[in-house]
Design brief:
2 domains, OB fold (Dihydrolipoamide Acetyltransferase, E2P), four-stranded mixed sheet, elongated, binds zinc ion, about 250 residues, five-stranded mixed beta barrel
Length: about 250
């Protein structure tokens, strides 16, 4: 029996029999895994604290036939602020549901643990608009899973969309790519059908750079930009569309 030491956060818990729990852990090393936590519901259990939802711990476990089994655990961060505030707790639940719907078990999920922990931190400690947090979380998770929209170059003329004057940014919900304003106007004159089939929305420059920032930045810094309400709505549209598209596969 080989013992493994991993750091992970509980993203789901199910009561099992009288005293046990089956918990879902998000780890860096093993991705998302299901674990049997024997006796974790007992008040005197050494696993009690570490096997609660949103607690981040170091676990010692071994692989069984169906589950991993937890041998011991030591909590690193309990995210206490989430536990004493129902509103924050519910927000964290919504984020973990999103995470569970996108990430499959036993597949590589590099960087997602760090993103999820940072998101819990932001919900616990910072008073950010929650729809903004959700949009950023969805977009960054999808990008980390390899479903990043292609926005750095115009999908028609291939010119760089970054660091140039604002000629308009048109995002296609069909291809998850962008057209520059010049190409958009040109295509509108020449071939309106092509534009219709692309299902474009105009993005403000602020929204374009918000998306660009989320895709390019480190998971730990992904919430450190500010946008206005209009850009926030546009960002939400793009993130929600990408998210539902991914779920439908
Ligand atoms: Zn172009």
């Amino acid at each position: 029996m080989k013992l493994l030491k991993v750091k992970g956060v509980v993203i789901k818990e199910i009561a099992y029999k009288d005293n046990d729990k089956i918990i879902t852990l998000l780890t860096d090393e093993l991705g998302k895994i299901s674990c049997m936590a024997k006796g974790a519901k007992k008040t005197n259990s050494a696993l009690l604290a570490s096997c609660q939802l949103f607690v981040y711990s170091e676990f010692v476990l071994y692989k069984g036939t169906t589950f991993y089994h937890i041998n011991s655990a030591e909590s690193i961060d309990t995210f206490y602020d989430l536990r004493i505030d129902l509103d924050k707790y519910e927000k964290a639940c919504e984020i973990s549901k999103t995470l569970n719907s996108l990430v499959y078990e036993n597949v590589e999920a590099s960087g997602i643990l760090s993103l999820f922990l940072n998101t819990l931190y932001v919900i616990a400690k910072k008073d950010l608009d929650f729809s903004y947090v959700k949009s950023v979380f969805k977009l960054k998770t999808l990008a980390l899973l390899g479903y990043s929209p292609s926005i750095t170059r115009c999908s028609n003329c291939n010119s760089s969309m970054v660091e140039k004057e604002d000629k308009g940014y048109y995002y296609s919900f069909n291809t998850n790519s962008v057209l520059c304003g010049v190409c958009y106007e040109k295509l509108k004159k020449e071939n309106e059908d092509k534009l219709k089939s692309g299902w474009y929305i105009k993005l403000s420059q602020a929204t374009f750079y918000a998306i660009y920032y989320v895709l390019a930045s480190d998971s730990k810094k992904v919430y450190s930009f500010k946008i206005d309400k209009k850009a926030e709505k546009e960002l939400e549209k793009v993130a929600d569309r990408l998210y539902t598209e991914q779920l439908s596969f």
